[in-house]
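[job 0417] fold request received: (Fe-S)-binding protein
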Amino acid sequence: MSVALFVPCYVDQLYPDVAVASLELLERLGVDVVYPEGQTCCGQPMANTGCVDDTEPVARRMVELFADYDAIVCPSGSCTAMVRHHYAAFFDADDARFQHVSHHTYELCEYLHDVVRLQHLDVNFPHRVSLHQSCHGLRELRLGQSSESMTPRTNKVRTILELVNGIEWVEPDRPDDCCGFGGTFAVNEADVSAEMGRARIADHCGKGSEVMASTDMSCLMHLQGLIRREKTPIQVMHVAQILCGRPLGSA
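[job 0417] inference complete; emitting structure tokens
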């Protein structure tokens, strides 16, 4: 199986170690990983802002670059959700290349859980960890149980992270609340966004968590900004960094 690594634009520009950690992790597990040159953005920022005409060429470029691979793996729930659930507006329903990309794009932990069926990791991370579950990961990819749903679901991210030795889990009171980022929502509704972020940080930090982990660096970017400005005693890390064995504070 040839697997293409799709790196979100903000990870590429601001948190490249998340991409490197994802690559290293997959290669350690024996996955044949390719990084398609010329990849850019999934188009989510434009789509969320209502700029549909600007989104279409980006979506078409994505499909053009990734359609020839058996699977596409992305260290971001929101970007994966964009490709899987929102590209249909830009393609004919019978477009085989689009259908292939749509049905074979996976979030990193989802791929490890559903396709690789990972059972063991020789990695240690002896810290108190809490999990921030992104809205896209829960509500669109169904990576875990959301409080408004009665359908029981395995928490795929938690299941994979539990393979790491030494983690002491910390449970926030509201495990599936939004962080408040929401892309341009954080710009258009800055005060509301910041208060939502502070509430998430207080919940996790108040339970004694050292590290807030997530599949989405966009959520963690928002939270990290508040943490640094307000000097809150907690750190953030992408799950790929923990699974790859990065030390505390790699984000």
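[job 0417] notes: The chain has a mean pLDDT of 94. The first strand starts at residue 2 and ends at 5.
[job 0417] exit 0
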